[in-house]
């Protein structure tokens, strides 16, 4: 095949010679299992020439050495939860499914958890909960450890300890050369910092070592309100998110959801408190708003994170970060409401506006130029809130029109924030659309740093050129 030193099919046959490594070929059950495991139709619609399924770090090292030596493009699949086509899969080339690297262990006093890059967060919480320990991982248990962490990671525990990446004490990484190295505060410290937000631009992480924190029962559940009460809910959300002394045990996600089939809005808030307190003062204003239902209860992290799997659909993300304002939330809803009623998609389309706090309490943990993260956030930015715009539909023939409408909608919302002088630079990579280039939002200094690190550990730009998925440094 033009452009490849060795055609992908032939490359797959060569990879089969790696001792102990499973290579799944099209029409096999193991190939289908990986394809069916992707979250979205966009990713599942791609058909790799084969899927490599390593179960140990040496397999990954051998894979990278072989693939790179033959100049073959490849993709890296962790949990497969990124919506965009090509982020964790690839057409007619090699997909590396990291799901077999999913072992979890702790050190002697359980202060550090070592987690394989292919594990899911539900696996992690199920292992750690009986030890009364946890890590600041993803909120949806189906999400993979690797992708969320390398993109930053927002957790129920982030107000206590920072982004998920801030709690990593060591990365085990396979470099483009096939060499296996550790990156931590003393070994390869520049790579250590770069990986905290630098997504998949530096190597293949095979293991993460996280600091754990104590946990017992937590309080969590949903509060559903009539859309007519949205201003009161938005006001309560804003007062939580912009509190001068943010309650570090509080984690709230507020969403408005529109169904083009029923032409109705749903308003709900997932309210977590990381201690067993069913009525913490921080939620008093929110809980006082008349509700349709309220399911706050005591639970464990692994039970709460065990969300029901959904069938594959077409899904897209967009994100922005804004200053906190109930009036801006009202305006963003009005902008969306004026647009989505016109959506005409066979089978229907669902629009979701989701807001979550990004208080200074979170970003302060990674604000260190030597051992912090590479996200470019700072307490100087003040309390902020992250928007996730999600669109879900099943008629792939409508994708172009849905994507254009979503881009237009985000542009209008961003302009509304600029008009109020509430726009913020940061774009959270795990929620970003491919067009958004979140690494640019990290700022010039961080971008320069990331490029220097990439030039040191990946001189030939393998992860820029042969791994098309993900956000690239030069983009």
Explain what you see:
The chain is α+β, with helices and mostly antiparallel strands. The chain has 3 domains: 8-99, 2-Layer Sandwich (Uridine Diphospho-n-acetylenolpyruvylglucosamine Reductase, domain 3); 104-215 and 441-464, Uridine Diphospho-n-acetylenolpyruvylglucosamine Reductase, domain 3, CATH 3.30.465; 218-439, Vanillyl-alcohol Oxidase, Chain A, domain 3 (3-Layer(aba) Sandwich), CATH 3.40.462.20. The chain is 29% helix and 23% strand. It is built from 16 helices and 21 strands. The chain has an 8-stranded antiparallel sheet with strand order 16-13-15-14-19-20-18-21. The chain has a 5-stranded antiparallel sheet with strand order 5-6-10-8-9. Strands 1-2-4-3 form a 4-stranded mixed sheet, with helices on both faces. Strand 8 and strand 9 form a beta hairpin. The mean pLDDT is 96. InterPro entries: FAD-bd_PCMH, FAD-bd_PCMH-like_sf, FAD-bd_PCMH_sub2, FAD-linked_Oxidoreductase, Oxid_FAD_bind_N. GO terms for molecular function: FAD binding; oxidoreductase activity. It comes from Neocucurbitaria cava. This is FAD-binding PCMH-type domain-containing protein.
Secondary-structure arrangement, i.e. CATH architecture of the largest domain:
3-Layer(aba) Sandwich
- With helices defined by DSSP (H or I, 4 residues minimum), what is the helix count? 16
Shape by Cα distribution: globular
What is the arithmetic mean of pLDDT? 96
Number of domains: 3
β-strand number: 21
What is the CA-based Rg, rounded? 22 Å
The low-confidence parts are: none
CATH topology of the largest domain: Vanillyl-alcohol Oxidase, Chain A, domain 3
Main sheet record: 8 strands, antiparallel
CATH class of the largest domain: Alpha Beta
Distance between the termini: 26 Å
Walk across the major sheet and give the strand order: 16-13-15-14-19-20-18-21
How much helix, percentage-wise, in residues?
25-40%
Class of secondary structure makeup: alpha+beta
Share of residues in strands? 15-25%
């Amino acid at each position: 095949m033009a452009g490849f030193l060795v055609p992908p099919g032939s490359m797959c046959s060569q990879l089969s010679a790696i001792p102990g490594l499973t290579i799944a070929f099209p029409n096999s059950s193991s190939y289908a299992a990986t394809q069916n495991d992707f979250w979205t139709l966009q990713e599942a619609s791609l058909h790799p020439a084969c899927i490599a399924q390593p179960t140990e770090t040496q397999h990954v090292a051998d894979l990278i050495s072989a693939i790179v030596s033959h100049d073959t493009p490849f993709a890296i699949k962790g949990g497969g939860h990124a919506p965009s086509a090509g982020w964790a899969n690839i057409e007619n080339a090699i997909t590396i499914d990291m799901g077999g690297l999913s072992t979890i262990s702790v050190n002697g006093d359980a202060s550090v958890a070592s987690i394989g890059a292919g594990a899911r967060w539900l696996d992690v919480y199920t292992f750690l909960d009986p030890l009364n320990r946890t890590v600041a991982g993803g909120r949806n248990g189906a999400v993979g450890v690797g992708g969320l962490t390398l993109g930053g990671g927002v957790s129920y525990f982030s107000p206590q300890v920072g982004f998920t990446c801030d709690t990593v004490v060591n990365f085990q990484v396979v470099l483009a050369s096939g060499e296996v190295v550790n990156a931590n505060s003393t070994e390869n410290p520049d790579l250590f910092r770069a990986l905290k937000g630098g997504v998949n631009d530096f190597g293949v992480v095979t293991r993460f070592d996280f600091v754990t924190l104590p946990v017992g029962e937590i309080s969590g559940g949903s509060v559903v309100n009539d859309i007519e009460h949205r201003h009161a809910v938005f006001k309560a959300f804003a007062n939580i998110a912009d509190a001068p002394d943010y309650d570090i045990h509080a984690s709230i996600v507020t969403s408005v959801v529109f169904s083009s089939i029923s032409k109705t809005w749903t308003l709900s808030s997932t309210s977590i408190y990381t201690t067993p307190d069913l009525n913490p003062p921080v939620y008093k204003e929110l809980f006082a708003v008349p509700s349709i239902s309220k399911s706050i209860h005591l639970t464990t992290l692994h039970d709460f994170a065990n969300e029901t799997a959904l069938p594959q659909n077409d899904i897209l993300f967009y994100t922005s970060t804004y200053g906190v304002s109930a009036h801006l939330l009202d305006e963003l809803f009005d902008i969306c409401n004026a647009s989505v009623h016109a959506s005409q998609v066979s089978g229907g389309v669902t629009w979701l506006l989701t807001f979550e706090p990004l208080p200074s309490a979170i970003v302060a943990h990674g604000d260190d130029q030597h051992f912090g993260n590479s996200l470019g956030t700072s307490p100087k930015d003040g309390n902020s809130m992250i928007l996730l715009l999600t669109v879900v539909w099943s008629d792939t023939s409508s994708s172009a029109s849905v994507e254009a409408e979503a881009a237009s909608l985000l542009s209008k919302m961003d302009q509304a924030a600029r008009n109020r002088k509430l726009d913020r630079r940061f774009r959270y990579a795990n929620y970003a659309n491919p067009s958004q280039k979140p690494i640019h939002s990290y700022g010039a200094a961080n971008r320069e740093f990331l490029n220097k690190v990439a030039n040191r550990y990946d001189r030939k730009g393998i992860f820029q050129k042969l791994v098309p998925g993900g956000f690239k440094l030069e983009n």
